[in-house]
Amino acid sequence: MADTNSDLRQLAVSGIRRFNALASAVPGCVKLTLGEPEFDTPAPVKEAVSRSLAEGQTHYPPNNGKKELREAISAYMRGQGLDYGAEDIIVACGATEALSATLLALLNPGDEVVVPTPAFGLYETIVRAAHGHVRALDTTGSGFAIDEGALRSAMGERTKAIVVTSPNNPTGCVYGPESLDAVARVAAERGLFVVCDDVYNRLCYLDGFQRLAARRPELKDRLVVVDSFSKPWAMTGWRIGWLAAAPALREQVEKMHQYLISSIPAFVQDAAVVALGCDPAPMRETYRRRRDVVCERLGAMGLPLTRPEGAFYVFPDVRGLGMASEELCERLVREAGVACVPGECFGASGFMRLSYCVSDDQLELGLDRIESFVSGL
Ligand SMILES: Cc1ncc(COP(=O)(O)O)c(C=O)c1O
Q1: How does pLDDT run across 248-301, given as a tens digit for each residue?
Q2: Is 18's pLDDT higher than 90?
Q3: Cβ atoms within 10 A of the Cβ of 189, count?
Q4: Which residues, at least 6 apart from 30, have a Cβ–Cβ distance to it below 8 Å?
């Protein structure tokens, strides 16, 4: 009997979800597992949906997104120093679909994609389901920065693309000019495609934060910018994001997008226009304050960490605790009532990820529980 996609069969379900489910089975467990902002979506965004529905926006919208939204996104991106017209934009079902459509459009079977690790697990899943291979570029020894020599060594014969995620999930780190220039030089030399997963760009605490597409515009023909409404506007459940790419590349990704999902609901797109005008700074400042608390508390517990400069994750080194991070995270759930995600889920054993996009009370309780567990070891 014929079997299903063998590459897909080898992939496990998301480790993040697994640990979250483990935590759900323990009553009162504090979950520091998901990248799910605890804030509500801004009220004006929610109100826009009712208006749009009342206006009858319930039919198939254009595949790449409504003109009004693509124009609003183009203006928004230009305000960020990224020169993309409305025609260069595809409105997608979250960054998840934007990344899927992009990678599926880029890869032939056997092609390789360089992914700096630790990394969000989705990239590998898509690459492998497309019968490609991931070449991991380990950044744990370089403070989660991209070292040019290491990047060159990670390249293979069939390396076609590199994924750049800044601010990063799971580290919260931001790539500085050296990392970005290293990627740009190698990509230009080797003719690589560059996929910039910029979903956390509005949640960066650094003043001089730069994005690769803005710093190195010469890469534009082979670069895809992926962004999302999920994180900055607490709209994870709305399932809307976008990508921007130069015409020849966009045309190919567009085909994939159309066959994958056709389009995003029109009333969701109308609300997204409103979201673009909302300032996420208050949420970002809350995350920044929590970042300071988490770093101080974990530091006091003796856990080394690289201070996050964005997103809402911290990724301490837990090698000193004398057990594998999977075991540590399982014991934290069962014995301490707090759930984190082991570094293995991001391709980096010896670390664990804590999300601090939970309420101050939950965060404090979770940290108290980690502290008493660690001090009891
Ligand atoms: C780095 C990164 N990229 C993409 C996504 C997917 O986001 P979306 O909700 O827009 O699909 C996430 C979600 O956690 C993420 O952390």
Answers
A1: 999 999 999 999 999 999 999 999 999 999 999 999 999 999 999 999 999 999
A2: no
A3: 10
A4: 337, 338, 339, 358, 362, 365, 366, 369
Q: Is the CB of 95 under 6 A from ligand 1?
A: yes
Q: For ligand 1, atom 4, which residue shows the shortest CA distance? A: 95
Q: Write down the residue that tokens 């996104």 correspond to.
A: 73
* Spatial separation of the C-alpha atoms in residues 43 and 371, rounded to whole Å: 37
Asked if 197 and 226 count as a contact pair (C-beta separation under 8 A), the reply is yes
Dihedral Cα 234, 195, 92, 353, nearest 10 deg: -30
Amino acid 220: pLDDT: 98
- Angle ∠(132,134,135) on CA atoms, nearest 5: 135
> 120 CB less than 6 Å from ligand 1?
yes
Whether ligand 1 lies within 6 angstroms of the CB of 37 is answered as no
Angstrom distances, CA of residue 117 to CA of 68, 146, 177, 214, 344: 37, 10, 18, 23, 10
| Closest of 361, 30, 88, 130 to residue 242, by C-alpha | 88
Q: Is 346 in the pocket of ligand 1 (CB under 6 A)?
A: no
Show the tokens assigned to 41. 């979506």
Alpha-carbon 35 to chain mean position: 9
Outline where the chain has alpha helix (H): 6-9, 15-24, 43-54, 67-79, 94-106, 122-129, 148-154, 177-190, 212-215, 247-261, 266-276, 281-300, 325-331, 360-375
Spell out the domains of the chain, with CATH numbers in brackets.
6-41+280-375 (3.90.1150.10), 43-276 (3.40.640.10)
DSSP assignment letter at 377: -
User: What is the phi/psi pair of residue 203, to 5°?
Assistant: -110, 50
